[in-house]
Amino acid sequence: MITPAHVRADVVDIRAGSMPSPESLVVDANVMYWVFYPNFATLSGVRGRLPQQYQTRFYPNFWSDADGAGCEFYTAGATLAEFAKLSEFAELEARWLLDAARPTPPNQHGASFNPAICKFCRYHYSVQSS
């Protein structure tokens, strides 16, 4: 088991442009989402949930600067799966918001997009032709 004594990490203020890039970073799924998800414009256009402005403003710039400085990035396989799940949620939310019928499971009518509706939409849209 990993204990706090085994973890040695520095906190990096990504807003400070003068901060030197670290040699290595462990990246979580949310950071990957803010840096690599390409369809925030679509989500914005249909009034989907967007990250906070600081997330899409500072994270991609910090990532780019760190990459340019030769920083090594690390993540876990489960983190990649979580990134895929975040992206799937956003894509299904955008499609659902654009759908005039807005398919929902029983007892969810009028609800905002949530994990139960996401799961329902995953199966609903998968059987429809594009």
Q: Total strand count, please? A: 2
Percentage of residues in helical conformation:
40-55%
Radius of gyration: 18 Å
Roughly what fraction of the amino acids lie in strands?
under 5%
N-to-C terminal Cα separation, in Å? 47 Å
The count of helical stretches stands at 5
Which stretches of 5+ consecutive residues score pLDDT under 50? none
Q: What is the structural class?
A: mainly alpha
Can you walk me through this structure?
The protein is mainly alpha-helical. It is built from five helices and two strands, in the order βαααβαα. It has helices at residues 29-36, 40-45, 53-68, 77-98, 115-126, and strands spanning 24-26, 72-74. It has a two-stranded parallel sheet with strand order 1-2. The longest helix has 22 residues, at 77-98. The termini are far apart.
Summarize the structure.
With 130 residues, the protein is mostly helical.
Task: From the structure above, extract its key features.
single chain, 5 helices, mainly alpha, two-stranded parallel sheet, 130 residues, elongated
List the helices and strands and how they pair.
Layout: E1 24-26, H1 29-36, H2 40-45, H3 53-68, E2 72-74, H4 77-98, H5 115-126
Parallel strand pairs: 1-2
Helix pairs in contact: 1-3, 1-4, 4-5
